[in-house]
Amino acid sequence: MSFRDFIDHLRASDRLVEVTDPVSKVFEAPRIAKRSNGPVFFHDIDGQKAIMNLLGSRDELADMFGVPKDGIIQRLSEVRPDGEVKIVDSSPTQEVVTEDVDLTKLPLMTHFEKDGGPYITAGVVVSEYDGMMNASIHRLMVAGKDKLAARLVPPRHTFVLHKKASENNEPLPVAIVLGADPAITFASTTRVPAGKEFEYAAALRGAPVELFECENGVKVPHSEIILEGYIDPVERVDEGPFVDITGTYDLVRKEPVIRITKIMHRRDPIYHGILPAGPEHLLMMGVPYEPKIYNAVSEVTTVKNVVLTEGGCCYLHAVVQIEKQTEGDAKNAIMAAFAAHTSLKHVVIVDEDIDIFDMQDVEFAIATRVKGDSDMMIIPNVRGSSLDPRGAPDGTTTKVGIDATKVLAEKENFERAKMPE
Q: What does the record give as EC number (predicted)?
């Protein structure tokens, strides 16, 4: 399903909020998106089209994967990065090509009052160097008419490729993809083997992914907009402040500069923006870790489902549903979850009768099935998330696992009352 096909599907299913009045890319469009519970299509952001909250709920994710909402984790845990990728000669993305680069003409948004500048937030940065390829989303701050500051997190693949190129005093060729098939954008956020993002996307969508080659040699999928350029081996500028998933400002750092040499786009392109700390940001950060936790817990007990909760920023808190076989299964599940997602801070293990998507039900399990002195694991001084405002300066934190499952020997004590039919 192409980017435009998916938008048409949202429109046909009456889940698309359409804003036809002119709005500004500075604060106004992000403010409208923040107040909406679903995808928002802007027909006139300074004369151009844009969409936000495209994958802003599990309903949209389920639609994209063609599964019910509670089947997302099962689908993701089964998919392997072995889909077909085809190289083609041309693309509708090349309908308009310009080397007179002016990023200010695009609807790049300024989201919050202390932002370091306008940001590209849904840009899939595709890089190639020395026979290696990577596709991943990086936040990109406008640093000039043809310059972007790229937050490259060590030791992720774009950081590694840029480091290798810089050691040879060479620029790293990149292409920034905006408005691709949503399955491709999602695949770029996953933790798959190096260079397998497009194969994973093809497996997710059940159809080949077509790539075409940019002038700098980087191969990219069909999309609404492509920004072609190079990451400078030496130049760095201040990047930030930027609001990250916790809704708090991240640090200002010296980050590498991308020089954009060419812009390609479809006629009347649709820009894709992700609201920082908004629902799409949270889901795109968190959901790719859920199958990792699911598969890790399945090695120690029978796992039924996993969710990284919105209240936990879809990153720091998890609820894991298991079919408990023996005492100790829940504690093994806790340790497996922390090992699978090292940024995880708190995890709750529940039984099959608890709806993990209903936080009231999860709280019920904690209230009625947890005994603090025996059902809580507290693990101090371990590596946590750099995004946790409460983490120590050296990156360590304290993790807590809660066994909110029934005691098997006392199972009758936990039977929930049912109304007669």
A: 4.1.1.126
